[in-house]
């Protein structure tokens, strides 16, 4: 009877971390930076182990897979949590189950990997002569396969039991991800079997892995204490110290969470411990395993200074380059003056258009709304993008000296890169603003408050500057000793890598991780926002309302298409031969043409901007 009258729930609301509204941007930035460091640390460690032959041993083979699992754990939880910090949103039952499956698989796999690493240390210290015979490549692969298969089977078991539950009363999950205990608490079906399965299987896996680790390290400890050499004891303790510290950090919060009694206060404690083992430990592990590990530090040093030995042998014949030559758009003398005039006019129109739009929005009270507040910030970013590239290009059209110093080159790249990154985030913020305006019009003044707008803009610029600080700090480590010719019209980072004497693998890896993540994050935010907007518009019965909504969003969608289209074409297409000229054309488009077009795109079909312009002219 009750089941028939009850409405089955298919969506949940994650309460997330308890925080005050004014702290949400700060909280977002903290966890965003932690996530970026986690991905760079773990993926960087994997790359380091893969590239250095000295690290192709069982210990680092297992460590590389632990780093992969840590990145997996963090990626399962953090992206959704970051979105929920900015705005609470529902999570469907399917998404919830997928998140739990991914999280449970990775956590269980980590338990088995930590046990496998403990066994590896036991064999290495207690049976050093038999170590190459016991810890063969085949055994290592088997240990890894069993760890991952064990993780998948364990989570699959709990997932299958979760599907028998129904949810009909509350849909509030008091957590920042779909944690299984919280789901059992709000179930309408008796979850006793689920609790029993959790107790038996999770308990058995934790007991097995902890006992394996304790037994292994007890034997290791007795072996170390028998050593007469103090140096040998110190080396053995140093080898095991990082792993023991990591194991302690991982198991203590996990055990405490599932042992202490349940209460409303305990729910908040659970969240704190969950943050620790799902977000903090994945960021700490690469640091723990590398800071006191001589082999890893030596490997990093070798990667950073790979060409130092070769350059020392020919030091007398090699001069480090401190100046570069920008080839520009063309080397044909007859085109220099016409191109100068064309790009001078474009630059003047760009500056007048963008700075004029900022002045118009600032002076007219009718435009003092979030939408135009973001638009003026986008105009400033466009003006910065154009000003970081165009003036130097104009000078090079008329001058025979196309040289640019290393300091000027890095400064130009920093200014351009930070404004381009800021623009990515501003475009996603503007998409979010349109989503709130069209999908939640009654809540718009409450949600898009002046405080939130200022925080979103501040966060966009802060991330832009922080992102480029990372890349410039890594660029400083590169040396240039052969060619100093940059086949471009500004200091483009990929062109600098091509002429570097130092191995730029680390730089390329960091660019791939950070830039790809930021572009994916902002692009997905825009797509999701406009998918919601599209469904909301199609639901409108009024044709006038539909036309107005489409008109409001069309300018932004056109701007986004221009910006991301050219950006993707540059970094997805091959970078050799004739394609370099295509890259120049695409770069020209998003560095010079888009900043020129944006003020017109956002004003020509915008009645409010045209009205404000007419009022200013009449005054």
Strand content: under 5%
| Number of helical stretches of at least 4 residues | 22
User: What CATH architecture label of the largest domain applies?
Assistant: Up-down Bundle
Average pLDDT confidence is 81
Please state the structural category: mainly alpha
Biggest β-sheet: count, sense, barrel?
Answer: 3 strands, mixed
Taking all Cα atoms into account, the compactness measure Rg is: 29 Å
Description of the structure:
The protein is an all-alpha fold and 619 residues long. The chain has 2 domains: 9-296, Rhopdopsin 7-helix transmembrane proteins (Up-down Bundle); 323-618, Rhopdopsin 7-helix transmembrane proteins (Up-down Bundle), CATH 1.20.1070. 76% of the residues lie in helices and 3% in strands. The protein has 22 helices and 6 strands. The strands form 2 sheets. The chain has a 3-stranded mixed beta sheet. A 3-stranded mixed beta sheet has the order 5-4-6. The longest helix is centred in the middle third of the chain and has 35 residues, at 192-226. The protein is flat, with a radius of gyration of 29 Å. The N and C termini lie far apart (72 Å). Mean pLDDT is 81; it is low at 1-5, 307-317 and 573-578.
């Amino acid at each position: 009877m009750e089941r028939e009258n009850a409405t089955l729930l298919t969506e949940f609301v994650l309460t997330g971390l308890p925080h005050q509204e004014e702290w949400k941007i700060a909280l977002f930035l903290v966890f965003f930076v932690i996530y970026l460091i986690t991905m760079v640390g773990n993926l960087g460690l994997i790359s380091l182990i893969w590239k250095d032959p000295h690290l192709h041993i069982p210990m680092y083979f297992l460590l590389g897979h632990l780093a992969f699992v840590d990145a997996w754990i963090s990626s399962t939880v953090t992206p959704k949590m970051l979105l929920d910090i900015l705005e609470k949103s529902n999570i469907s039952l399917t998404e919830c189950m997928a998140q739990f499956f991914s999280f449970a698989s990775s956590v269980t796999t980590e338990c088995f990997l930590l046990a496998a690493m403990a066994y590896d240390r036991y064999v290495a210290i207690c049976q050093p002569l038999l170590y190459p015979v016991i810890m063969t490549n085949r055994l290592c692969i088997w240990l890894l396969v069993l760890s991952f298969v064990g993780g998948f089977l364990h989570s699959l078991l709990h997932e299958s039991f979760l599907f028998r539950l129904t949810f009909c009363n509350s849909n509030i999950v008091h957590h920042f991800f779909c944690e299984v205990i919280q789901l059992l608490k709000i179930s309408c079906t008796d979850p006793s079997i689920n609790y029993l399965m959790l107790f038996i299987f999770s308990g058995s896996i934790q007991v097995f892995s902890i006992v394996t680790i304790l037994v292994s390290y007890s034997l290791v400890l007795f072996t170390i204490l028998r050593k007469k050499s103090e140096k040998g004891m110190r080396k053995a303790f140093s080898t095991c110290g990082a792993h023991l510290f990591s194991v302690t950090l991982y198991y203590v919060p996990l055990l405490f969470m599932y042992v202490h009694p349940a209460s409303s206060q305990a729910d908040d404690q659970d969240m704190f411990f969950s943050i620790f083992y799902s977000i903090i430990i994945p960021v700490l592990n690469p640091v723990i395993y590398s800071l006191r590990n001589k082999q890893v530090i030596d490997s990093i040093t070798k990667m950073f200074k790979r060409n130092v030995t070769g350059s020392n042998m020919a030091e007398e014949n090699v001069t480090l380059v401190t100046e570069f030559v920008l080839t520009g758009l063309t080397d044909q003398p007859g085109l220099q003056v016409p191109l100068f005039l064309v790009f001078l006019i474009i630059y003047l129109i760009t500056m007048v258009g963008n700075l004029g739009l900022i002045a118009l929005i600032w002076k007219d009270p009718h435009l003092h709304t979030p939408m135009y507040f973001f638009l003026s910030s986008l105009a400033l970013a466009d003006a910065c993008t154009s000003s970081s590239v165009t003036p130097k290009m104009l000078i090079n059209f008329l001058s025979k000296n196309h040289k640019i110093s290393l300091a000027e080159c890095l400064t130009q790249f920093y200014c351009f890169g930070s404004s381009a990154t800021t623009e990515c985030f501003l475009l996603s913020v503007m998409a979010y603003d349109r989503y709130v305006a069209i999908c939640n019009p009654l809540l718009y003044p409450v949600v898009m408050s002046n405080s939130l707008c200022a925080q979103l803009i501040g966060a966009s610029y802060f991330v832009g500057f922080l992102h480029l600080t990372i890349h410039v700090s890594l660029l400083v480590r590169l040396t240039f000793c052969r060619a100093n010719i940059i086949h471009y019209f500004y200091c483009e980072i990929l062109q600098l890598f091509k002429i570097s004497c130092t191995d730029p693998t680390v730089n390329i890896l960091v660019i791939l991780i950070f830039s790809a993540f930021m572009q994916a994050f902002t692009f997905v935010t825009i797509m999701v926002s406009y998918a919601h907007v599209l469904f909301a518009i199609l639901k409108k019965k009024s044709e006038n309302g539909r036309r107005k909504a489409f008109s409001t969003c069309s300018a932004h969608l056109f701007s986004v298409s221009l910006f991301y289209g050219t950006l993707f074409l540059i970094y997805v297409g091959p970078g050799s031969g004739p394609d370099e000229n295509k890259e120049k054309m695409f770069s020209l488009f998003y560095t010079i043409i888009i900043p020129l077009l944006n003020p017109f795109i956002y004003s020509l079909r915008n009645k409010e901007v045209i009205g404000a312009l007419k009022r200013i002219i009449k005054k």
